[in-house]
């Protein structure tokens, strides 16, 4: 059996695997797609000490760094069940059952899509999901934020300091964000809030040039010319497969303590699949290191 089995090969999983392997213990990593969300990213400018890199390049270096160590890398494999017996068992979709003394869950998350025409077509060509990452690319331009919950309104406030104008589109008649955020938003001069509207299409040629929406009470379709669209309707953790094996929040995020431990002894978690409040590459890597050290500590005590 493994001492540490990591599920997920994004920044959190790669970091966990390296930290575990450096302890000289038997380490394995299962990843459906090595690199994770980093593979969907073009420019990365906030990975500290690296001024600029690109997703595919960073994903390749993650894999290369993991392979420097004696880690059993199982790519293109998806975990579908976790159960604690004498050891912790993880069943893969191909039917194989892996056994380990400890497991680190780092299956990440995915952005919820609005699913309108233009969204997929213009991804990274004006359609963005991460204001911390891509906000500066739209300096001085007009952008839309789809979603009036906390993440949407935080994004709108953040972007308003960088771009020329922000138009917020919310499907419901009222914004759902906390009142303090709404107050801050409405105090800003360069923000327009549209409520009770349904996004119909993100328009463009080679890149985004506007957004069309329906006013839900009148049924009227309108179009705004702009250069960027931030979709902020939620981040969904890839944790459905865990069921009740570990405690998860209402949003499906795995609950971890300061050492990365979950509610199930021997099972740790790191990165975007957890209830960590901020989701970034550098944060995922840090929490991956924490979870591996937590798991190692557990191993020497049990
Ligand atoms: P992920 O990167 O999501 O990796 C999850 C891993 O788990 C993948 O290998 C996946 O295949 C695997 N997996 C999932 N389910 C299973 C399963 N059941 N079985 C086996 N494997 C599974 N952050 C920044 O800091 N800077 C940026 O500039 C930046 N730009 C971004 C741009 C975009 C378009 C996106 C989508 C995100 C961006 N982020 C950025 C956020 C950053 O990518 C994430 O915070 C980070 O990748 C999270 O790492 P993670 O390892 O927790 O999860």
UniProtKB/TrEMBL annotation:
Binds 1 FAD per subunit. Disulfide bonds join 130-133. Residues 2-281 form the FAD/NAD(P)-binding domain. GO terms for molecular function: flavin adenine dinucleotide binding; NAD binding; NADH-dependent peroxiredoxin activity; oxidoreductase activity, acting on a sulfur group of donors, NAD(P) as acceptor. GO terms for biological process: response to reactive oxygen species. One of its GO terms (cellular component) is cytosol. This is Alkyl hydroperoxide reductase subunit F. The chain holds residues 208 to 509 of 509 of the full protein.
